[in-house]
Write a structure and sequence with these properties.
By secondary structure, the protein is an alpha+beta fold. The chain is built from 14 helices and 21 strands. α13 runs antiparallel to α14. It is globular.
Length: 498
């Protein structure tokens, strides 16, 4: 008999008892109180739902290095905003935001929010957390476009931007902490759970200071499982109930669990040498893009866990939806025409393709080779260890290469078009119209449409796919499993076991 059925029967019995007592002239006793207690009872679980963490890593969100702990910490630390599946910022702590000018973003938070230790969460707490996050392993790159944060009052924080950015609020997903530790040495947040310790074991327990949170899982054991391979096995045999895999190192997705794809901003692209060889010809670069069958790469190399990049921006993002300029499949005729327009002789259509040793990117390289050879190129793949590959790319020793980079959630492209960008290699920034138009856009002197148009004509690099991650969870876990990048437990209060 389920707990729900038992609750209903007990309620009916209580009502019948109360009516009988009243009919006999006796007092109704505490029948009303009994009904109230039973009908408001909430099924809870203190041991069934388990998560993994890395014991050797810090649980301080500004020091954490492992994805394992970063996932767990999203339950302990709130942020100003969280992102949905379309990379649109949804309010978490923040109640509103406004751009006072092109480089000033003001965010308002409500008064009365407290951390799990009862201390007040104010604008100063946000400023402290931003200053910690800006130099942390997890958020340093993401926050590089924001120069500073200042508390204008106890409820308003002002962020100064390095350049015009109407989507800067998308970056404000860093953890907010008060800088203190509890009696067990755990950092303190304002999230739905807090870190706890019982007989040496580490748990998450409900943060009773968090408003309107009534989950089934009131105590979540944390199991020390440091490696991705061990996490996969732990899910399969039931040692843990849920995990997020970013699939950065590949691996088999055929797991004995339920799975859900999660959109990421990890762009897989083809870098091209704009300085030397036939790839210095923009028509050759356009031909490469037109020859690529992105849909096939999604299905084959990434086994469906990716999305075709039909623009430089993620296809689910607002900018991506408004600027789809590439076909997701091969356009053989257009690719051959671009080769003809390039003026490059057939005998000179030779390309070296550089790739590092990664299962998915190696598979992508082999597919790219086939697709380029179908339109007349001759392609030789060179596979290298990561360190050698990095050196070759940085010194421009390539015709084309398969690369991957994480685009910030505001879809900023400075890693390609900034003077110190980590993926600028091969792009002639001084002479690239695309780079110039992007700089104008950032300075408020140009439109994003001009950038996209010049990109499609010049092809400084070739977007291929945006990779996805994967949520995997126990088959016995029930509920609408909503979860997004950096917001993995969006509606955990609704999850339960039968």
């Amino acid at each position: 008999m389920t707990k729900k059925i038992l609750s209903v029967l007990l309620t009916l019995i209580a009502i019948a008892t109360a009516l009988t007592a009243c009919a006999g002239g006796s007092k109704p006793n505490n029948a009303h109180k009994l009904v109230t207690e039973i009908t408001t009872e909430h099924a809870t679980d203190t041991s069934g739902f388990k998560l993994s963490y890395t014991q050797a890593d810090s649980l301080n969100p500004f020091l954490t290095k492992t994805l394992n702990n970063q996932v767990v910490e999203t339950l302990v630390f709130d942020s100003l905003f969280v992102l949905d599946g379309n990379f649109e910022a949804q309010p978490a702590i923040a109640t509103s935001y406004v751009y006072d000018d092109a480089k000033t973003l003001n965010v308002t938070i409500p008064s009365g929010i407290v951390f799990s230790d009862g201390s007040a969460l104010t604008a100063s707490s946000v400023v402290y957390s931003f200053e910690q996050a800006k130099y942390s392993p997890h958020w340093q790159s993401m926050l590089s476009g924001i120069s500073s944060a200042t508390a204008l009052s106890s409820t308003v924080v002002s962020f100064k931007l390095n350049h015009q950015n109407p989507a800067a609020h998308n970056l404000l997903t860093f953890a907010i902490a008060n800088g203190d530790s509890d009696k067990n040495g755990f950092p303190i947040g304002s999230g739905r759970y807090k870190f706890s310790k019982d007989n040496g074991a580490v748990y998450l327990t409900v943060n009773k200071k968090h408003a309107d949170f009534n989950p089934h899982f009131t105590k979540i054991p944390l199991v020390n499982i440091p490696t991705a391979e061990s996490i996969d096995n732990a899910i399969n045999i039931g040692n843990i109930s849920y995990a997020f895999r970013d699939m950065s190192s590949g691996g088999d997705v055929k797991m004995n669990s339920n799975k859900k794809a999660v959109n990421l901003t990890n762009l897989v692209y083809i870098g091209a040498n704009s300085y030397l060889g036939i790839t210095a010809n923009k028509d050759i670069r356009r031909a490469i893009s037109l020859a690529i069958d992105r849909d096939t790469i999604v299905k084959s190399a990434y086994r469906g866990y990716a999305k075709s990049a039909t623009s430089p921006f993620h296809p689910n993002s607002k900018l991506g939806r408004e600027s789809g300029i590439f076909a997701s499949s091969t356009d053989l005729a257009a690719a051959k025409l671009a080769i003809t327009q390039s003026g490059v002789e057939k005998d000179n259509l030779k390309l070296g393709l550089l790739v590092n040793k990664n299962a998915e990117r190696t598979a992508t390289a082999k597919l790219v080779k086939q697709q380029l050879e179908a339109v007349g190129f001759e392609v030789e793949i060179t596979e290298m260890k990561a360190a050698d590959y990095k050196t070759y790319v940085q010194y421009g020793r390539f015709d084309i290469y398969i690369g991957e980079t994480r685009i910030p959630s505001d879809m900023n492209m400075l890693s390609f078009f900034g003077q110190s960008g980590s993926t600028r290699f091969g792009i002639d920034l001084q002479n690239s119209e695309t780079a110039k138009n992007y700089k104008k856009y950032l300075n408020g002197k140009g439109e994003i449409g001009s950038f996209v148009l010049s990109f499609s004509q010049e092809m400084p690099f070739i977007p291929v796919v945006y990779r996805q991650g994967m949520i995997c969870y126990s088959r016995s876990l029930q509920g609408d499993m909503q979860g997004y990048a950096d917001n993995y437990f969006s509606n955990i209060q609704d999850w339960h076991y039968n």
